[in-house]
Design brief:
The chain is an all-alpha fold. Among the domains are: 116 residues, Tetratricopeptide repeat domain (Serine Threonine Protein Phosphatase 5, Tetratricopeptide repeat), CATH 1.25.40.10; 54 residues, no CATH class; 74 residues, Tetratricopeptide repeat domain (Serine Threonine Protein Phosphatase 5, Tetratricopeptide repeat), CATH 1.25.40. Helices cover 69% and strands 1% of the residues. A hairpin with a 6-residue loop joins strand 1 and strand 2. It is globular. This is Pentatricopeptide repeat-containing protein. InterPro entries: PPR_rpt, TPR-like_helical_dom_sf.
């Protein structure tokens, strides 16, 4: 073969020429064939080849993403034993993988074993993980260690620590870190100031937060829309609606364009106060300011209409929302999507006022749009049908959603048993109670 060494990959029996092994390693990693890549790497090192650091870094990243941090560490061991020199990026990827997996002690062990100098990214990754875990004291010890290594903290470092200090020790202590930051020649940015503004608001010192916002330009930093939203949310939560209107006008005067979140804060506050007309006015002004309402803009309104039993208005605004909002873009892969909450709100409202036929039509509409109903959807329907005396229909829905993999809760069982008792079918209610216990649901006081 022209003098090229042939490499045998352990267990797989596949052969590669030495000159192409690193290319094959890159290909395995690129295709997500991590186990094959790992075996190839073992074979390469066994035959004295030096693996490509970039490909090995990608292999470590791939294993970390899959939660296989031990395998990622084994890759690092192999690299180090091979005579190749991992760079700071390789170590950072492994440290980041450990931190994401909540294995902070292992991340610190990697920091100790690094054969190259850690950089600010290394320390920021560890500091973030420690602070998110409520280990501020340990984070400050890591900062001291960083300073002794002449690795100077950047604005991200200090912002992480200031945020954690606000939560754990209060804003006064965080301000000391801000002073230290400045004394080291590190200029705070708008994110740093937003963390402090948020901390001041959470301590209930809204007027001080407003003064702090107004003083930001003197520090060479202009407040952004997030800064204003933090203050706005605090104003609304403390009932200072007039101040909120003034702040919004001030934002516009200064050329700080409101975001959809700005308007959603206002709509939510007005709906909580029962001022649905004013909330609609705010909703209709959004387009004028270049903002497109999302389902979170409509949810408080729909909830308000349902609370006031104005179901015609609720359905009207649900239809407006469906025509304006791109539903598929708002389907959430994690947790409950905002659009699902919207439908659940109206279905529950209709069920409570005895309009289950309309509620079932909305369920069909949901399914047609690719929305998957949850336990709240079905519990609302089962409860409504039971209250209307349609207990057999309620039981049919109950078994339908069991087949769809939705596990009924105690409220759902109780609704059906109450419906059966009202229909004087006590024997069936007792049977249903037995079924509930058999399915592993604990009866409640209401049961």
């Amino acid at each position: 073969m022209g003098g090229c060494t042939v490499v045998k990959v352990p267990k797989k029996g596949t052969y590669f020429e030495e000159s192409g092994s690193n290319n094959q390693l890159r290909k395995f990693v690129r295709n997500g064939e991590l186990e094959e890549g790992f075996m190839l790497l073992e074979g390469m090192v066994y035959h004295g080849e030096i693996p490509d650091i970039i490909a090995c870094t990608s292999l470590i990243r791939g294993f970390c993403k899959r939660g296989k941090t031990r395998k990622a560490t084994r890759v690092m061991d192999i690299i180090e034993d091979s005579g190749a020199v991992p760079d700071v990026i390789t170590y950072n990827v492994l440290i980041s993988g450990y931190c994401r997996a909540g294995e902070i002690d292992n991340a610190l062990q990697v920091l100790d074993r690094m054969s190259v100098a850690p950089n600010v990214v290394t320390y920021n990754t560890i500091l973030r993980s420690l602070c998110d875990s409520g280990k501020l004291k340990q984070a400050m010890e890591v900062l001291d260690r960083q300073l002794k290594k002449d690795c100077y903290p950047d604005v991200i470092t200090y912002t992480i620590l200031i945020e954690a200090t606000c939560k754990e020790s209060g804003v006064a202590q965080a301000m000391k870190l801000l002073d230290e930051m400045r004394s080291r020649g590190c200029k705070p940015d708008v994110v740093t100031f937003n963390v402090l503004v948020n901390g001041i608001c959470k301590e209930g010192r809204l007027d001080e937060a407003i003064k702090f916002l107004n003083s930001m330009p003197s520090y060479g930093c202009q407040p952004n829309v997030i800064t204003h939203n933090i203050i706005l949310r605090s104003m609304c939560s403390t009932g200072r609606w007039m101040d909120a209107e003034i702040l919004l006008a001030d934002m516009l005067r200064k050329g700080c364009s409101p975001s959809v979140v700005t308007f959603n804060i206002l709509i939510n506050f007005l709906c909580q106060k029962g001022l649905l007309g004013r909330a609609i006015d705010v909703l209709e002004k959004m387009h004028k300011h270049g903002c497109t309402p999302n389902s979170l803009s409509y949810n408080p309104l729909l909830h308000g209409f349902c609370k006031e039993k104005k179901m015609e208005r609720a359905i009207e605004y649900l239809e407006i929302m469906v025509s304006r909002v791109e539903i598929l873009n708002q389907l959430s892969t994690k947790g409950c999507s905002p659009v699902l909450i919207t439908y659940n709100t109206v279905i529950d409202g209709l069920a409570k006022v005895g309009k289950t036929d309309q509620a079932i039509k909305l369920l069909d509409e949901m399914l047609a749009k690719g929305l998957k109903p949850d336990i709240i959807t079905y519990s609302s329907l089962v409860g409504g049908l039971s209250r209307e005396g349609k207990v057999d229909d309620a039981i049919k829905f109950f078994h339908d959603f069991e087949r769809m993999g939705v596990r009924p809760n105690a409220i759902t069982y109780n609704s059906i048993m109450l419906g059966l008792c009202k229909a004087r079918q006590t024997d069936r209610a007792i049977d249903f109670l037995a079924y509930m216990v058999m399915r592993g649901r604990k009866p409640t006081e209401s049961t």
